[in-house]
Amino acid sequence: MDKSEVTESNFELSVLGALAIMMFTIVAVNFFLFIVI
Asked: What are the GO BP annotations of this UniProt entry (predicted)?
């Protein structure tokens, strides 16, 4: 495995992590608003 491949996989993992955090935040906010309202 080259360094470029490792960097690329790490980049993909970080992007997936960011998307997962965004989705979790949106779901949490909607859940919170649903309970409050």
From this structure: proteolysis
Q: Which domain holds residue 26?
A: 1-37
Scan for tokens 């989705």, then name that residue.
23
If you write DSSP's letter for every residue of the chain in order, what string do you get?
--HHHHHHHHHHHHHHHHHHHHHHHHHHHHHHHHHH-
Dihedrals phi, psi of 2, to nearest 5 degrees: -80, 170
pLDDT in tens, 5-31: 778 888 999 999 999 999 999 999 999
Per-residue pLDDT at 1 exceeds 60:
no
